[in-house]
Specification:
This protein has 238 residues and is α+β, with helices and mostly antiparallel strands. It folds into two domains: 114 residues, 2-Layer Sandwich (Translation Initiation Factor IF3); 114 residues, Alpha-Beta Plaits (2-Layer Sandwich), CATH 3.30.70. Helices cover 23% and strands 42% of the residues. The chain has three helices and nine strands. A five-stranded mixed β-sheet has the order 3-4-5-2-6, with helices on one face. Strands 1, 7, 8 and 9 form a four-stranded antiparallel β-sheet that branches. The radius of gyration is 27 Å and the shape is elongated.
Length: 238
């Protein structure tokens, strides 16, 4: 018994590839405490200006349209204030101290990895600066994406060929290639970057050597769905 019109095979192909990162992003805060809100904000602004001046000395520029792929950029994301409180052991509550804390969040992105060691040293000596998170990223147009997507298609075709052979036939054509979920399956994402984010704190004023930031390889994943046509399929095939 055979299907002369061809048999439709639906398969999924997946591939992974590890590539070097294109950029590292550090989320830092400038935090200052003073007796008044205005003075706390003023001191936080002064510390921010000092930090960005040193970044500029290393070739850094403010992030804006057209500078996103410069070797070193920074962006002040937010500025907030809060009343400082301290824990009172006798009352078991957090009491106001009369001081105000100002916090400015700064995002620093480096694409020139030779700047990582100088950047770590720079951040370590600023007493008001701490780094809360470090994440490594791959650009959307990194050549690795094209390679891993092609590998996913080849994986799907290879799987379809296995199915056709098991049925005593062979693949004759590709009917459809789509991102995962677009052929009626689940809604899995087509590409995923497994970002290896390492969080740490750099608090200035210490005696230890500044930390070394080592680029973390990133895994790219591509998932596709395919509909393939097999000819010569026989239900009596071994």
């Amino acid at each position: 018994m055979s299907d002369t019109a061809g048999t439709l095979l639906s398969v999924r192909g997946e591939a992974r590839q590890v590539v070097p990162p294109d950029a590292v992003t550090m989320t830092a805060t400038v935090q200052v405490t003073h007796g008044s809100k205005a003075e706390a904000l003023r001191m936080a602004a002064a510390n921010l200006n000092s930090l960005t001046a040193e970044l500029a000395a290393h070739g850094g520029v403010a992030l804006e349209a057209g500078t996103e792929r410069r070797p070193l950029t920074w962006s002040a994301q937010s500025a907030t204030t809060r009343a400082e409180r301290s824990y009172d052991k006798q009352t078991g509550s957090h009491e106001l101290t009369g001081q105000v804390t100002a916090v400015v969040e700064v995002v620093i992105t480096a694409r020139a990895f030779e700047l990582l060691d100088p950047l770590g040293a720079l951040l370590a000596v600023h007493e008001t600066v701490s780094v809360r998170q470090v994440s490594w990223d791959v650009d959307w147009d990194n050549p690795g994406w094209q390679e891993v997507r092609a590998a996913a298609i080849h994986a799907a075709i290879g799987k379809g060929r296995d199915y056709a052979t098991a049925l005593g036939g062979s693949l004759s054509s590709v009917e459809h290639i789509a991102d995962a979920g677009l052929l009626g399956g689940d809604h899995a994402q087509t590409q995923l970057v497994a970002r290896s984010a390492a969080g740490f704190a750099l608090v200035g004023g210490g005696e230890s050597d500044p930390p070394s930031l080592d680029p973390v390889p990133q895994e790219l994943t591509a998932v596709i769905e395919a509909r393939l046509v097999a000819d010569g399929v026989s239900l009596t095939a071994p």
